[in-house]
Amino acid sequence: MPVPENLILETASIMNSGFRTALAVFLTLFGIGFFCSLYFPGIVKLELSAYDAKLRSCSEKFKKESPILIADIDNESIDALPNIWPWPRNYYAKLIDNLNKAGVRLIVIDVMFDKPNAEKPAGDSAFADALRRNRNVILSAEDNHGIGLIQPYIAFNHASDSSWGFINIQEGADRIVREYYYGITDKLGSRHGSLAVETFKRVSNVDLTNKDDVFPIAYFGGERSFEYVSFRKIIDDSTFKTKDEIDFGEEVNEFENLLNSGLFKDKIVFVGASVEDLHDRLFTPYASVNRGEATGSGIPGVEVHAAALHTLMNGNLIRTVPLNIYWIVLLVLSALIFFAGSHMRILYTSLLVAIVLLISVVANVVIFRLFLIQLPVMPILITVAITYAGQQAFLFYQERKKRRQITGMFGHYVPKEVVSELIRDPGKMKLGGERRELTVLFSDIAGFTTLSENMEPEKLITLLNEYLTEMTAIVHKNGGIIDKYEGDAIMAEFGIPILMPDHALRACTTAFEMQKRLYELGQKWTAEGKPVLTARVGIGTGNMVFGNMGSDKVFDYTVIGDVVNLTSRLEGANKVYGTKIIINEAAFLQSSNDIFARELDLIRVKGKVKPVKCYQLMAPKNSPKADEIANVIDTFTKGLKAYRAQDWHSAIIKFNETLSIWPDDGPSKAYIERSERLIRVNPGRGWDGVFSQTTK
Question: How far apart (Å, rounded) are the C-alpha atoms in residues 68 and 306?
Answer without folding.
Answer: 7
